[in-house]
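look at this:
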Amino acid sequence: MKKWRYASGQLDLTLVSESFGTYLAFFYLEKLGLSAAFYALARTVYAFWDAINDPLFGHLSDRTKTRLGRRRPWLLVGVPLFLLFYLLVFWVPDWARSPQVLPYYFAVGIVLYETMATVVWTNYGALFPEMFRGLSERAGAAALKRGTELFGLILGIALTPLVYAQVGFLGMALLYGGLGGLLVLLFLKSIREDPKAQEAEPLPFIPAFRYTLGNQAFWIYSLAALFLLFAVGLFGAAMPFYAKYALGLGPEATSLLFASVLLSALPSVLLWARLAGALGPKGAWLLAIFLLALGALLLFLPRTLLEALPVGLLIGVGFGGVLVLGDVLLAEVIDRDAEVTGRRREGVYYSVYGFINRLSGPLQALSFALLTPLFGYVSGEVPGPRPEAAFRFLMAGPPFLATLLALALAFRFPYGAKGRMPGAGSS
């Protein structure tokens, strides 16, 4: 039951986060006419604030001591605000839709939303290494967690074009925010933290981050994960454009493309949990990254929906492996740090990891910005002379390069070889 309770939180947060991350660009660029250049600028500027708030919230979470635990108080406060700001991003009143106001409304909205996303995801992720110990238990919990996440992706991404086509983006936000809020609160009521994790005196701010930022294995893993998240995120953000311009299809076909990825990823998580034992977490991770890279390269080719669907299936299998094995390998990095410092510091690690991951947002935005000088695409109102080539490039080129970089880094990761991963019982 502990695994199921924890995994239910992943479903709730995924439903909201992925609908935001996937359709934010489409809503503001195509529907409201925000320029791709300003979209890129706003996401990049936010990254500087993220550099401050991520480590701050992670450190404060590690230092929190209450009868409810270290993470639950932050989640109880952060989740309602997270859902409120999600709603406000998609609720754009008439006065905010003018070209003079819309860029500022967009910028403020994403700063508020992403700040609360930092609080929520950092504290949720920090529960994983504390609650689950050992390769077998972690692989099983990660498979279940990622399986529910993929179900959330099916709801939050693959079905969303059908949802907003019927009720609009505001209706979508109300529906997903309400459902996600209900399920997250149920998850929070059932989770109990280990009181022993609060016993050791937390490290001061500077030593805590000195140990974290000096951890070479953590940097190798985090940079590889950044490139993978960028690739997968760009698949999602570019998919509606790819379907429209490269394949000449509508929202229903977009849903089918997303479904081909997610429905193949969902059953694959069980396979990857087994491969973690058979190949070692690192060996299975390398295989998953290779499949993603191959899928990205093949996306240059399809001209019809039937040609694109098999590529989506391949990407989905690789995506499932990246999700499951990433949880296991990051938890191992944190365990080995606890052996050195004598303290479990999941909050700091997940906050720094979360900040590095959120750099994928500006990277995706900069990829969109490249479309103007390379292909003449400005917005849905000014698509330029070659929108098909623009979004075929966006869907395949940057993701393929990113997965190759991730593969090179993954080869250098020092832990997770078959038969050499310890039981992760440190505390």
Notes: The chain has one domain: 2-189+204-411.
